[in-house]
Design brief:
- Helices cover 6% and strands 43% of the residues.
- It starts with a helix and ends with a strand.
- The strands form six sheets. Strands 1, 12, 13, 14, 16, 18, 19 and 21 form an eight-stranded mixed β-sheet that branches.
- Strand 22 and strand 23 form a beta hairpin.
- The protein is mainly β.
- It has helices at residues 3-11, 161-166, 178-182, 448-453; strands spanning 21-22, 44-45, 51-53, 61-71, 76-82, 90-94, 98-105, 113-116, 137-143, 149-155, 171-176, 191-201, 207-209, 220-223, 229-234, 237-244, 251-255, 261-266, 269-277, 280-282, 287-293, 302-307, 312-321, 344-351, 355-356, 366-370, 375-382, 388-392, 397-403, 419-422, 427-433, 439-445, 456-461.
- The chain binds CU-O-CU linkage (C2O) and copper (II) ion (2 copies).
- CU-O-CU linkage binds at residues 114, 116, 154, 156, 285, 391, 393, 442, 444, 446.
Amino acid sequence: MSVKDVSRRVFLGGAAASGALLVGGLTASGAPEASAARGSSTRNLLYVPPVIDVAQLSNPYDLTEAPGTVDLGSQLSKAWVYNGTLPGPTFRARTGDTVRFTLHNGLSEPTITHWHGMLVDHLNDGHPIYAINPGGTYSYTYPIVQRAALNWYHPHPDMLTGEQVALGLAGGFILNDDQELALGLPSGGYEVPLVLRDASFDSAGNLKYTPKGGGFLGTTPLVNGTRDPYLPVDSVVYRFRILGGANARVFGLGLSTGAPFWLIGNDGGLLPATAKVTRIELAPGERLDVLVDFRGLATGQTVVLRDLNAGWDLLEFRVARQITDTRTIPTTLSTITPLGTPLRTRTFSFDGMSKINGKVYDVNRIDFTVPFGDVERWRFITNGNAPHPVHVHGASFQVVQRNGGRGQLFPWEAGWKDTVLLQDFETVDVLIKFSAYRGEYVIHCHKLEHEDSGMMSNFVVN
Ligand code: C2O
Ligand code: CU
Ligand code: CU
């Protein structure tokens, strides 16, 4: 951590000044560090969090952030969790529903929950200014006014987000709509959320956060909170809803057999058309909707989802059963109307490890105002310290151009996005229009150590 990071954290009374933060306080579980499981034939059954159709409940859903003990497969670990599970429960709702939550702070420091990707008004957005103290509560009520997509939720307090997410606080939120349901995509047990992240552990096997200004990189991958996971699969087409849930790590996803992903969606829902890809870069905050075809594989065969960047095996699929599946992979998926000609251009420079346009974040300072309903071009540039996954609250955007660096747009950047990966030497242009709500939102780097250090900016849509 830089001096700046530490002073910002200490200034707010954060507990992380020591640089290494353990989930401690409780007795060690006694479970040995489960490194023996890595690389051996012993794998743990993939955890799939409970799904809650939150709009069907007659009362607001109680969502609690608190310390807890979770089973990561081969070990029990202390973590910070939503309602006792890691990841938190998967919420589901449909366009037109209204959802209600009561957030409870069971931590020993301020927190607030943000609904990443959700089009909500300022009061429901989990802006850091609404962080609640230990023992406090916050009520959310909002209608679902957007198309089907995989969104997610995680803490968003000023300067403490990286710690709270790294220690386990995050969950998926799936939105459905009629257009998506009409495609008849794989569902039930054939639709599986995969929350990808990395983690570090102390000698007792508890989650540990060791922030660095350049980004927290854990030693171990977790899929849905499971170490060394496997998933028994039938010989059919699966739909995987993938979330980049790491603090700072960019995954390079591929399948061990060289088989393709049939990419059908991303942050903002379905793409216009299916794309066949064998490798996908997934940055913190980004989501993917992919079909994987296990037809033709014999029972007992395995396929491994790999991170080609770190050389990690993330998840082993084991074909367990032969089931006939005659589905056709869809080619046309949805209609995306281009936003059209922008009225003006705004440039955002992601500077150092803690600034946007030369300024460190101040929760109380409004940096700019965006006219409601105008199409604008937002240009993201950097002088180094990438990856910077750039994320905007309050609207999705369309990525239209990348110059320098990788010099191209990728199939997973089509359609609607709310997070886009900016690498060194790149200029990325997006088109954006705020037409849902007026009010205050933020733009920030989703490398959470950059965000916590101040690479965030408040703006008002008016
Ligand atoms: Cu996923 Cu402002 O965050
Ligand atoms: Cu967000
Ligand atoms: Cu950054």
